[in-house]
Task: structure prediction
Amino acid sequence: MKMGECEATANFDTLRAACCGVIPLPGRLEPWMATACRDENLQELIDQFDSPLNLINTDPFIRNIAALQLVASELDVDLGVYFARKANKCLAFVSAAQSQGCGVDVASAQELQQVLDQGQPPGQVICTAAVKSRALLALCVNRGVTMVIDNVDELTHVRQVAQHQPRRAVIALRLSHFHHDGVRLASRFGFSVDDVPKMVAKELDGDKGRQIELTGIHFHLDGYSLQQRVSAIDQSLTIAAELQSLGHAIHFLDIGGGMPMSYLNSSSDWDRFWCELERALRGERDAITYRNHGLGHLVVDGRVVGKRDSYPFYQSPVQASWLCELLRSECNGSSLVSAIRQHKLQLRCEPGRSLLDGCGATVARVEFVKSAPEGYLLAGLAMNHTQCRTSSDDFLVDPLLVPTGVTISSQKRASAEGFLVGAYCTESELLCLRKLQFPHGIASGDTIMFPNTAGYFMHFLESRSHQFPLAKNLDMTRFPNQIARLDLIDTLANSCPPTGRPDSLTNCVGSIEHSLP
Ligand SMILES: *Cc1c(COP(=O)(O)O)cnc(C)c1O
Result:
């Protein structure tokens, strides 16, 4: 361990000491998060921009991209990284991707228009939106953005749109229902791998395909299984070869996102947490979650059943090592990477979450602390659960507590246990379902930091229910040497109707750039 790392670890330990789960799940932290926690202006920043406040940093993002590119160069494979920006809306990540020669994967007309307005070359953008309006398709065709086609209706609309445009539409096909381990990988998306050649013959060969250029094969699988991706790549290569032999200039294979990452350092913390949760559910120990919430598990006849409704916060391998292992996997007697080379294909991937590892944290003010008759504390934060949540049950990483309330609170800071509750008026509005320990207490005026929230947690579910404003996004990349600035997305959001037509956004971005401080 280098000296600097040693210091950083010590710093993190002090930070972590003020708050941890009854069964701890200490998160992986970046030095910049510790710097932000220790900064004397942290509270002032929250007062200025309101609570909660999303902090972002693009340095780890660039590091994560570089790690993937290093694997590609070591394995001698042509790799195109396309950042899936639905995982975080901040435009700082689009600029950072651009600075690294990376592409961007967009999931809506608004995302696309903003990316183009940022100067991203259209050839470096791919549109994978689940539902595509004709306006979105027209924008793609007009600007030369590759569209990933999901179904025959979409293909028909592309053809219609392209008839009125001087250039050909560039498309890739989304494949699904791959064969794996004797079953099909079910999906609501894409064309079944078995039906694709017939579909292409019917819809794209001869005159019908005149306005459309089929250039790539794409898939994006649910979950994080490496073996499923081996099967999907293998079957995609067969389809690519078949389509190439039919005269289609397939030149890339896009394996989508779902590259795993870890929020925790230790597999034993993760395993212990689930083991203790099961014991709690069976009544063998005190509850470790609010009202003994099962996070997807239930007890039936004394047995724990059901599936964890959570992201796998600890996994291994992850990120670049995972990609390396995937590409080195054997299939039909050769490695995937050599098969991809043999088919003369560029490999593309669309990571969202894993590129954002280390790139964000959400900070919020503790507004009140009260004792519940059950014997624990409830700490109320100026924040709601949609500001740090994805579609699964909970954020399973210990928050950090910064005792900024120490000077303004008259309450004695005694050791306590309890829960963080949020601003929506429902009984279930908890910011964290796990019971937390506060060895030095928690008081109004304190600051809570949820670490590593850039991937999905900040933005995927954020809502304006109760008319709360959306959280602001502050770019801390050059902080504290330079002042932290709001991300461009916050200025955009204020001046554009959220459902504005794509071309109306162009004017917005143009005018905003001039009015930035
Ligand atoms: C969501 C999504 C991604 C990104 O997935 P991550 O799990 O964030 O890496 C990539 N491609 C498509 C088509 C997606 O829907």
Observations:
- Residues 95 and 444 are 38 Å apart (CA to CA).
- Confidence is low (pLDDT under 50) at residues 497-517.
- The first strand starts at residue 20 and ends at 21.
- The first helix runs from residue 3 to 16.
